[in-house]
Design brief:
α2 crosses α4. About 30% of the residues lie in helices and about 20% in strands. The chain starts with 6 loop residues before the first strand and ends with a helix. The chain has an 8-stranded mixed β-sheet, with helices on both faces. By secondary structure, it is an alpha/beta fold. The chain has 9 helices and 8 strands.
Length: about 270
């Protein structure tokens, strides 16, 4: 797919220093960003919506760079894009992961002038464990310290209800926790909790797109279907697509990528 060379990439920008690791972000934008002075008269290009990508890896592996292709194409589609890092389960137990993602989102919008970001148009996109964190950030309001409003969310092949996750059924502990989690901990880390619980339900959840491969053998498609049903029942705007003949990592496959790219960016343009 043709792509112009007019993309400026800021790699490994430091977000925060944790005891376990330094949190970083890769930021992708046009090669003529605003000056950073905050003076609209000196801006070379209007501010763009921000898309924050959250990588997967079962909360055990993963790093920025997984969404590089997506981020480059996001700039082509008129967005500023970023990948943010987070501590893995063996480095720090939950809620460290979601706190790191929320801090990364806030760090980006705090630097809206530098990167040419419209802080009033922010989306999160995640895959697998990253979809879990992206939707948790979008649905949990300020539960985990996030200050930035999220205006759209996309989850691909995600785990959204750890209360019914295969780990629990098999008697195993999800790698988010140090030891066997309590029922309360599993509820707190499940995005669906913030939709289907009477005390937490929020009909103002952002427009949400959920994609899941029909042939996913890693995370059951029912995870996405049940979250979509809960969001719809609570009066939220949600789209769910079970992608035919697609596996767990279809969003990165050359076969599925053109159609998925079109679907995701069309949704984000409309939502933002």
């Amino acid at each position: 797919m043709p792509r112009s060379s007019d993309v400026l990439v800021y790699r490994n920008r430091t977000i925060a220093d944790r005891e376990e690791r330094t949190l970083t972000a890769d930021v992708y934008g046009p090669d003529s960003p605003p000056t950073g002075t905050g003076d609209p008269a000196e801006t070379t290009e209007p501010a763009r919506p921000l898309v924050v990508f959250v990588y997967g890896g079962a909360w055990e592996t993963g790093s920025t760079g997984q969404f590089a292709r997506w981020a480059l194409d996001a700039v082509e589609e008129g967005f500023v894009a970023a990948e943010v890092s987070y501590r893995l389960g063996h480095e720090a137990p939950f809620p460290a992961q979601i706190e790191d993602v929320c801090e990364g989102i806030d760090w980006l919008t705090d630097r809206a002038d530098e990167f040419g970001i419209d802080p009033d148009a922010v989306a999160v996109v995640g895959h697998s464990a990253g979809a879990h964190l992206a939707l948790l950030a979008a649905l949990s309001d300020d539960e985990f310290g996030r200050r930035t409003d999220i205006d759209a969310a996309v989850g691909v092949s995600g785990v959204y209800d750890l209360r019914a996750d295969d780990h629990e059924r098999a008697g195993e502990s999800p790698p988010l926790f140090d030891g066997r989690p309590s029922a309360a901990e599993l509820r707190r880390c499940s995005p669906i909790t913030y939709v289907d619980d009477d005390t937490d339900a929020d009909a103002d959840a952002p427009p949400t797109l959920l994609l899941h491969g029909s042939e996913d053998s890693v995370v059951a498609p029912d995870q996405s279907a049940r979250l979509a049903d809960a969001l719809e029942a609570a009066g939220n705007e949600v789209e769910y697509d079970a992608v035919a003949a697609a596996d767990h990592v279809f969003l990165h496959s050359s076969y599925h990528y053109p159609a998925v790219r079109k679907q995701v960016f069309s949704f984000l343009r409309e939502a933002l």
